[in-house]
Amino acid sequence: MTQPEAAPPTPASVPSVTTNPWSGAPGEQVVMEHVTPLRAASRRFLRHRLAIVGVVVVAIVILMAVFAPLLTPWEPNKIDFITGARQPPSPRHILGTDVSGRDVWSRVLYGGRTSTIVGFGAVALYLTIGTLLGLAAGFYGRFVDQGVMRFTDAIMSIPTLLLIIVFVSVVGPSIGSVIVVIGLLGWPVTCRLVRGQLLVLRESEFITASRVVGVPDRVILFRHMLPNIFGPLTVVATFGVASAVLLESSLSFLGLGVRPPDASWGNLITEATSPVVLNTLPWQWVPAAVAITLMVLGVNFIGDGLRDALDPKTIKRG
Amino acid sequence: MGAYIIRRILISIPVLLGITIIGFVALRAAPGDPLLITATPEVLARLLANPQILELERHRLGFDQPIFPNQYVTWLSHVLQGDLGYSITSKRTISYEIGSRIPQTLLLMSAALSAAVMIGIPIGVITAVKQYSKIDYGLNALAIFLASTPVFVLGLAFIYIFAVNLHWLPTSSLHTAGKSDFADALYHLILPASVLAIVNAAPLVRYTRASMLDVLSSEYVTTAHSKGLRHGTVIVRHALRNGLIPIITLVALLIPEAVAGAVITEQIFAWNGMGQLAVNAANARDPSLMMGIILIVGTAVLVANLIADIGYAVADPRVRFDRAR
Question: Would you tell me which of A126, A190, B114, B274 could form a disulfide with A186, CB atoms 3.0–4.6 Å apart?
C-alpha cells in the first residue's frame, strides 16, 4: 500500500539498487533492487504473453481508427452507384462495396472510431459516477450507504440490454444516447467495488492516523484512499471497455444505436441477417465481425493481465 | 428460513413498483400525444372522424392529469384487472402479444441455460483443478474468445456454417411452414439454443474457475489432502460444495441476462419471442407495449433474484442464521 507521507519515488531520484544491511555476512554489502509496487505490477503484467498481444492488437485498432482519413481515399458515407453497389474486393475498393456503393474498408475504419469513442466515453462516464457514489457510500456510511446501495441494486437487477432498449425508445438512437445510456447503466459495478474497497481501507491504521492528525475528509478520500483503489478500478474499467464495445455493436446491429449512413461495426452486420448477404456478399459483414472480436478480445486480454498484475488475490499461492 | 423468504418477497414488491413507475413516467413524458398513441382501435377511429371530441376524450381517459401519481395509478388499476392495453403497431391487446410469445422465449432460454450450466460448470472445475496446465490455458483462451465474440456474430457464423453450407439445420423460426409438431420445434431449437448456451457458458466457466481456485487454496482442502483422501474425493466432496455456492447465485442471475442475449438471438433466428417484441416496440415507439414488457421482464428479474437468494440461503447456512439475529 502506498504510505501517504512518502513522496512517490521517480525512476530518476531513486537508484534502482539499494543495499540491505540486514542480510549477508557481517561487513558484507548485499545489493538489492528497489522494487516499487508499480514496478512489480508492471513486471507481472509483462509476463502475461496474452496481455502483451492484447496491447498490440488494441493499439493497432485505435491507431487505425485515429488515422482513418489517412488510410483510405474513400468517404465512408458516400453513396456511389456509378462504381457499383455490392462489388467484391478489388484493387480499387480493398474490401469491396456495400449495398449503396459505400467503400467497406473506410466504413470499417470509421466504425472503429465510433466503437472506440463509445467504449472509452461510456466507461469514463460511469467510472466518474460510480467512483463518486462509491466514495460517498463507503465513507459516510449509514443512510447514505443504504440509499446508494438500494439504488445500485435496483439498477443492477434489470437486464442491461432491455433497459437500454427502453431508454433508446424514449430518447431516440444516436451515438450520444448510446454513450449516455451505457454510462448511466454501468456505474453500479464500479460503485460497489469502490465502496467495498473503502470499507476495508477505512479500518486501516494509516487512515486512522490521518484522521487523528486532522487531515480533512476530502483529502483523505482523494489523496489517501483513492490511489489504493486504482488497481481493481483499472481492471474493472478495462473489462468495462470491452463490454461497452460489445453493447454498442449489439445496439447498432439491432438498429437502436448508431444508424446508417453513419458507420458502426454493429450496423455493418445488420444486413447480414438476410441470406443473400450472408452467403454471397461476405466481404460486407465479415471484416466488421472480425474487427469487433479482435478489439474485444484484445481488451479482455489486457484486463486479464492487469488483474493478475494488480489484484493480489489471484496471484498463485506457493 | 420462511421469514427470510417472506422478507425477500416483501422487499421485491416495492422494487418492482419502482421499476414500473420509472418506466411509466419516462414513456408518458416522452414527446408525442399519449391519447393518440394509446387509444384502443375503435376509439381512435371515432376520434379521427370527429376531432372536436378530442379534448373530451382526453379528459375522460385522464391524460390531462399529472403523470404521477394519477395516470400511473390508473394504469396500475387496469393492470391489476388484467388489462394491459392495446399495441398501436399490431392493433391487438398487449396481453395477447406477450402471451403468444412467452412460451417460445421460455423454451429457448430454458434449453440454452440448462445447456450452458451443464457445459460451463464442469469445464470451469476442470480448468481450476488443472491450473496452469495446457488444458487450462486452452480452455481458458477458448472461453475468453467466445466471451469476446458478440452474440450476433456467433449466431451468424453458426448459421453460415451449419445451416447454409452443411445444410444440417434450418436457419430460422420455430417451425417449418405447415408443421407444428414438437419434434420439428426441437429441430429448429438446436441452433439458437446452442448459440445462446455457448455465450452464457463462457462467463460461467471463468467464474467457476475463479471460485474453485479460491476454494482449492483453503486450509480445509489441504487438511483433506493430508488426511489421505484421494484427489477426486477431495474435489467432489469438499471443494466443489463450497466452490459452487457463489455459482448458484450466478446461475440464477444468468436468467435475466439470458433475456438480453435472447433479444439478439431471436432477431437473428427470426424466433418469435419477447426479445423480438421488445425491439419492435422500441423501433415503433409503442409505449403501452413497452410498459407491458417492462412489467413482465421486471417480474421475471425479481423472481430470478429471489430464487438466487433462496438458493444461496439453502446452500450456505451462514446466510440463513446470520440474518435471523
Answer: A126
